[in-house]
Design a protein that fits this description.
Blueprint lengths: L19 H16 L3 H6 L1 E10 L3 E4 L1 H13 L5 E11 L3 E11 L5 E11 L5 E7 L2 H8 L7 E2 L4
Parallel strand pairs: 1-6
Antiparallel strand pairs: 1-2, 2-7, 3-4, 4-5, 5-6
């Protein structure tokens, strides 16, 4: 007895937008420029008022000025601690791209720790609207450094 009828028509569940590939390119470009230490290019991939959410720590960073300060810290200080990273996969859909990564972080005492991270990059009309990052609190502490204390609490309805 067959569980699936091979001749059955598969219904169209979602009508994907015709500009989906173009939207995904905003996220791909952001990831590429960030990985190549391009501050201005990375900032150029964002909408005018980006929002970064950090989960489950429950913090958010918003506005280009604060995002710029974060990336200045990231490229100037945090980046030197990243000794390796492994991309486990990308998935893009109608509203965002998601990337799953393990980042190997070297502390000042030489100890290396791996952090698993899932980041969602929502599409806007002319760039990504920010990021929703899911990782351990310690990862956010080391990645954001002193900027972390300036972030707002995230209110989830």
């Amino acid at each position: 007895m067959a569980l699936i009828d091979a001749d059955a028509q598969v219904p169209q569940v979602v009508d994907l937008p015709s500009d989906l590939a173009q939207r995904a390119l905003h996220a791909i470009r952001h990831i590429y420029l960030e990985s190549h230490d391009d501050l201005e290019g990375t900032l150029g991939t964002l909408v005018q008022h980006p929002v970064y959410e950090l989960h489950p720590i429950g913090l958010k960073m918003q506005g280009k000025a604060l995002v710029r300060r974060y990336y200045e810290h990231f490229f100037g200080e945090a980046r030197r601690h990243v000794v390796d990273y492994v991309v486990h996969g990308y998935c893009y859909g109608e509203t965002s791209m998601t990337v799953e990564v393990t980042i190997s972080w070297r502390y000042d005492d030489g100890v290396i720790r791996n952090f698993r991270n899932l980041t969602v990059l929502p599409y806007g009309s002319n760039g990504i609207t920010g990021e929703r990052m899911y990782a351990e609190d310690e990862f956010f502490r080391v990645l954001f450094g002193p900027i972390l204390t300036e972030l707002e609490h995230l209110h989830v309805d």
